[in-house]
């Protein structure tokens, strides 16, 4: 590869996302050099990574594991094309360059948890992106990354939500005047504009009072506190 001789060491950065929401702080492997021998050059990390305080039973079905290959080099000689893109971060005397990335669905389309070894082709020349397509196509410049997901030696699937209760319908007029004023100001905001976290929280907190405004449903769903299994019955009751 054209980049193989440019860097001293490499690492993999792992991110966990639901949509564009980061579910846990990023974690990364240790730094390893490129090694030759055999049929091709390779980098071997041979280590487990763990997202602390993140439990399988609390992650949404659509959770994605984003992996990014990064090259590390000394800070001298940063005037090359990659540095000009502004995609580097300095840590002491070292620079980190994103080289390629991929996204892995933790649950497949049938709701079963992906387990064991996964051979993942990286899309080169990009940074990690939570909304990038799941990388299943081997391109001419792809780097193959073997990711070993935990193997629980049994089939694990995302269970169907409990029967959704009937969502209570409450009159908008029952809200206190000052609260009603805040909700109205959010409701009148153009849908093409970005909603602040505080505005989404207002919609979610008072979701049962705005059932006569179906145009707000996409924003209310966006404001949902969680999309884990335990939260789905409440979310589905709004549909």
TrEMBL record:
<dbReference type="GO" id="GO:0005737">
    <property type="term" value="C:cytoplasm"/>
</dbReference>
<dbReference type="Pfam" id="PF00792">
    <property type="entry name" value="PI3K_C2"/>
</dbReference>
<dbReference type="GO" id="GO:0005886">
    <property type="term" value="C:plasma membrane"/>
</dbReference>
<dbReference type="GO" id="GO:0043491">
    <property type="term" value="P:phosphatidylinositol 3-kinase/protein kinase B signal transduction"/>
</dbReference>
<dbReference type="GO" id="GO:0035005">
    <property type="term" value="F:1-phosphatidylinositol-4-phosphate 3-kinase activity"/>
</dbReference>
<feature type="domain" description="C2 PI3K-type">
    <location>
        <begin position="1"/>
        <end position="165"/>
    </location>
</feature>
<dbReference type="InterPro" id="IPR015433">
    <property type="entry name" value="PI3/4_kinase"/>
</dbReference>
<comment type="similarity">
    <text>Belongs to the PI3/PI4-kinase family.</text>
</comment>
<dbReference type="GO" id="GO:0016477">
    <property type="term" value="P:cell migration"/>
</dbReference>
<protein>
    <recommendedName>
        <fullName>C2 PI3K-type domain-containing protein</fullName>
    </recommendedName>
</protein>
<dbReference type="GO" id="GO:0048015">
    <property type="term" value="P:phosphatidylinositol-mediated signaling"/>
</dbReference>
<dbReference type="GO" id="GO:0016303">
    <property type="term" value="F:1-phosphatidylinositol-3-kinase activity"/>
</dbReference>
<dbReference type="InterPro" id="IPR042236">
    <property type="entry name" value="PI3K_accessory_sf"/>
</dbReference>
<dbReference type="InterPro" id="IPR016024">
    <property type="entry name" value="ARM-type_fold"/>
</dbReference>
<dbReference type="GO" id="GO:0005942">
    <property type="term" value="C:phosphatidylinositol 3-kinase complex"/>
</dbReference>
<dbReference type="InterPro" id="IPR035892">
    <property type="entry name" value="C2_domain_sf"/>
</dbReference>
<dbReference type="InterPro" id="IPR002420">
    <property type="entry name" value="PI3K-type_C2_dom"/>
</dbReference>
